[in-house]
Amino acid sequence: MKKMFLVLGTIFLMVMLAACGADSAKNELEKNDTNKAEAKTGDKASKADEDQEDEEEEKAEDIWTYYDNAKWSDDYNGLKLEVQKVVVSDKAPTMDDENANASAVGVKFRMENTTDGKFTFYPDQAVLVTSTGEQIDMPDMWVSDSIGGEIDKGVIKEGNIIWYLERGNAEAIEWIKMSFTGHQGDEDDFEAETKEYEFEIKLK
Q1: Residues in contact with 64: Cβ distance below 8 Å, sequence separation at least 6, in sequence order
Q2: H or E segment and range at residue 84
Q3: pLDDT winner (highest mean) among 6-15, 44-53, 137-146
Q4: How far are the Cα atoms of 70, 112, 136, 200 from residue 73, in angstroms, in the given order?
Q5: Burial level of 128, CB count in 10 A (0-12/13-18/19+)?
Q6: pTM here?
Q7: Are the beta carbons of 123 and 147 closer than 8 angstroms?
């Protein structure tokens, strides 16, 4: 008798669970259909307004000021070097504290070896000088991309190089100067002629 009750109870529970699952799935599908219908019949103008609000929200949350026209480039015997943009912020997070309001300068750097040989350059160890009177001898290695070193044939290396300022006022910077060295050849080719780069980029 007990076994019969157990079997009947089990069957009852299975039926209830199946019904709940079906109702849940049905509700999700109906909700999906409703959303689709609303999307089809929705006002295009209101969608455009929502998109604009989203864009404005993203811009408001962005802590960086972008200087897309702050560029520099050179071709050294087939190695193409390029600063693609510069960014600054007085609200930059740090490794120690994501909510910190540190001042920082960032550079998007790209190198492409168009030859069959090798090059060795270290833009990710560049010295930064700013118009506000700062000289930072080394980028922050923890947050910068490691793009320096040996660059074999056909290789493209690109990434962001970040310097944290000591006295702040990143938004007041009008120009930056970068300097770094490298050479044509393998990393351990100590007799190769050193190529020194020092260039200034205007921000505003």
Answers
A1: 87, 88, 89, 92, 106
A2: strand 79-92
A3: 137-146
A4: 11, 11, 22, 11
A5: buried
A6: 0.70
A7: yes
